[in-house]
Design goal:
With 73 residues, the protein is an all-alpha fold. 56% of the residues lie in helices and 0% in strands. The longest helix is centred in the N-terminal third of the chain and has 16 residues.
């Protein structure tokens, strides 16, 4: 996935075309490693896997006390 996400490829393509248009040297492809979106996406993926971030607990058919116990776990 990293760093060759479509957003990284689009960003690099845009930077390369802008550099060519203004007569500048095009950056190396390794500059895609500096794209913060891909790193943030990977960080959120790992944090949500480790912590259960955005985990949904089905509470249908449970009493109020059982719902509170399920949420507090």
């Amino acid at each position: 996935m990293l760093p060759w996400h479509i957003v990284c490829a689009l960003w690099f393509n845009t930077v390369s075309h802008a550099a060519a248009e203004y007569g500048l040297v095009s950056p190396p492809i390794t500059s895609a490693l500096l794209m913060p979106y891909a790193w943030a996406l990977l960080l959120v993926l790992f944090l949500s896997a480790i912590t259960g971030w955005q985990k949904r607990i089905p509470t249908q058919g449970l009493s109020s006390k059982e719902q509170n116990d399920a949420v507090s776990r």
